[in-house]
Amino acid sequence: MLPRIRNNAWKQVRLSSTSRHLATEIPTSPEPPSPLAALPTSVLLRSIFINSITSKPYLLTPSLWVLSKLSNPGRFMPSIDNNVLLKCILKPTFYKQFCAGETGAETQATMKHMKEMGFRGTILTYAKEIVFDHATGAQHGLGVKTSEGVNAEWCESIEAWRAGTVNTVELLGEGDQLAVKLTGAGALVTKAFTENKLPPQQMMDALNEISTKCKERGAYILIDAESQHFQWGIMLVSMYLMKKYNTDGIATIYNTYQAYLKSTPSTLAKHLTAAAEEKFTLGLKLVRGAYMGSDERCLIHDTKKNTDDAYNCIAQGALRQEIGEFGAKNGRAFPSVNLLLASHNKDSVVAAHHLHQSRLRANLPTVPVKFAQLQGMSDEVSFGLLQLKDGTSSAPEVYKCSTWGTFGECLAYLVRRALENRDAASRTQDEYAALKSEAWRRMRSVF
Asked: How far apart are CA 172 and CA 169, in angstroms?
């Protein structure tokens, strides 16, 4: 019995050795790198710290309260820019996570770094705006006065907005984008918007100057959606500019459409009709929506799923060139459209990219598409998109959206961004888990 046992054991050893040998010869596909592997370690650690707060409601709520107070200092509280201690704490953490810089040099350095990490460019924001709270009927100015003389021939607020926006344009390179909030030009402009009129000529002259400068630089303008109290006037401006500057098959001007509004499909249908009849390219920037806390609730879809379905329907309809009667069998020809999908929803943007690439490979009609996420947020989504390049498809054009200016100038904007994203707890927790997983991966590779 003993020799037989030894013989069987030897067979097992030889089988095990052969299996190991075969395993070394059979090629295995390498595990794709983590999307966050491209994130510098200093940014990764800062992101973990920030997300450790934003992913926990019991930490986020009091933090937002403190930041809100700092953004509106009273008579007994100095401006954040004059508070050396607080600025030393907040600038290298909160500010640097979400903002490009306090000066032009800092901002351009950040934009250069974005391109080095693989992004097509930066969407740079001039952050002043006025928000209308439907519940209270009050206007809240973020870096801008909410009231001034309504008969002035020359408005100081419009000039300040023009100068600040022109300074922002000077920082842009070819392919970069400028995001503007038109209510940041002050009360004369918002008064016109509430009356569903174009703003004063001084504002229109400023917009033409800015549009011309951007077109000359090969940059683009994204006219942000704002409170519905002002939105119909804002869309008058965006349509006027698109008709004037989007005439060569390229959208220099984009209007923003909010998928959470029940009215968006009918609004988009009207704008597609205008683009078809007046022969201009419609710049379609699609977002889910950011003013749920201040707009009338009845204007907004009842559930998040309804909003998600609306977003995906518009995005994929544009990529298929089939929206309503446009592109339908026996319907109207689809007009010229350029698409920008601004979303932190991984499923939406990945599905859109795959649809776009599949139509290109099949020689089916589609539209140019770009993607965008906020700086400091959803890095796993952004870098994950950049990884989708393969031998048969090009990498998607991905942008990071940021703001620039002093901490005091940007703080109100940052607080509102945090407030509008505070309900996305599950996404924030997923991002926090991904960041920690990447940190552990790097530690294991060292030890």
From this structure: 5
Report d(CA 73, CA 310) in Å as an integer: 40
Asked if residue 366 lies in contact with residue 90, where contact means CB atoms within 8 angstroms, the answer is no
Q: Cα–Cα distance between 342 and 369 in angstroms, integer?
A: 11
Q: Which residues contact 37 (CB under 8 A, 6 or more apart)?
A: 383, 438, 441
Cβ(263)–Cβ(231) below 8 Å:
no
Structure tokens at 153: 């021939």
> Angle 156-169/187-194 helices, nearest 10 degrees?
100
Q: Which residues pair with 94 in a beta bridge?
A: none
> In whole angstroms, what is the distance from residue 337 CA to residue 161 CA?
29
CB count in 10 Å sphere of residue 193: 25
**H or E stretch at 371:** strand 369-374
Task: Round to whole Å and give the CA distance between 237 and 223.
Answer: 9
- Name the region of 405 (left: φ>0; alpha: ψ -120 to 50; beta: rest): left
Gap between the Cα atoms of 48 and 430, Å rounded: 12
Q: At what angle do helices 407-420 and 57-71 cross, to 10 degrees?
A: 140
C-alpha of 319 from chain center:
19
Place of tokens 């790198």: 33
Helices (H), 301-366: 304-320, 346-361
Question: How is residue 171 written in tokens?
Answer: 């920082």
**Which pair of structure tokens corresponds to residue 159?**
């000039």
The helix-helix angle for 346-361 and 379-386 (nearest 10°) equals 10
Neighbours of 366 (CB within 10 A): 20
Q: If you compute the radius of gyration of the chain from its CA atoms, what whole number of angstroms results?
A: 25
Asked if 44 and 439 count as a contact pair (C-beta separation under 8 A), the reply is yes
Q: Look at residue 68 and give its three-state secondary structure.
A: helix
What is the Cα–Cα distance from 19 to 333, expressed in whole angstroms?
61
Residue corresponding to tokens 């190991």 = 20
In this predicted structure, what is the pLDDT of residue 19?
A: 44
Helix (H, G, I), strand (E, B) or coil at 322: coil
pLDDT digits (tens, 9 = 90+) for 415-435: 766 666 555 555 678 888 999
Report the C-alpha gap between 252 and 271 in whole angstroms. Answer: 16
Flag whether pLDDT at 395 surpasses 60: yes
CB 81, CB 406: distance < 8 Å: yes
> pTM of the prediction?
0.86
For residue 250, what are its two tokens? 């390229």
